[in-house]
Amino acid sequence: MSAVQSLLSVAGQRISGQNVRTQNVMAASAIANVVKSSLGPIGLDKMLVDDIGDVTITNDGATILSLLEVEHPAAKVLVDLAQLQDKEVGDGTTSVVIIAAELLKNADELVQNKIHPTSIISGYRLACKEAVKYIQENLCLSVDDLGKDSIINAAKTSLSSKLIGS
């Protein structure tokens, strides 16, 4: 082995292929399943107990995921995604994790059907553009059309979020 190869080698074993993809999807699904039942206005609370016995009861996806000890690399990516969502927006962490896990599940099925990953990514990007276009054309309303009461209610909802509310 040359000196350059020995400097660049990493102890361990490299695994690739369908088994690794499936394991990654399963890890992402497991993380999504942990927070899935806490979603929505009637979501269930989770009771988490840490190593020293401290108990936390919450239905906040970001809190649940921050208290989990995740070791799988793909699962860690979802936890990081949730933390970034919480930091940037302050809400929607559970939804982001569930959607990302479902997209990964669907992508894994497409790869098993011999569709190349770059084609899947291109399809997801196109779907995102079409979804944004649909929202802008069909779901957006002018502020003038809403009326003062609706605007005040929207502002109250935004101001009572966990990001600004405290």
UniProtKB/TrEMBL annotation:
It is found in: Cytoplasm. The keyword Hydrolase does not apply. Gene3D superfamilies: GroEL-like equatorial domain, TCP-1-like chaperonin intermediate domain. The keyword Nucleotide-binding applies. One of its GO terms (cellular component) is cytoplasm. Its main location: cytoplasm. It comes from the Eukaryota. One of its GO terms (molecular function) is unfolded protein binding. InterPro entries: Chaperone_TCP-1, Chaperonin_TCP-1_CS, Cpn60/GroEL/TCP-1, GROEL-like_equatorial_sf, TCP-1-like_intermed_sf. Keywords: ATP-binding, Chaperone, Cytoplasm, Nucleotide-binding. Heterooligomeric complex of about 850 to 900 kDa that forms two stacked rings, 12 to 16 nm in diameter. Belongs to the TCP-1 chaperonin family. Molecular chaperone; assists the folding of proteins upon ATP hydrolysis. Known to play a role, in vitro, in the folding of actin and tubulin. PANTHER family: CHAPERONIN. This is T-complex protein 1 subunit alpha-like protein. It comes from Euroglyphus maynei (Mayne's house dust mite).
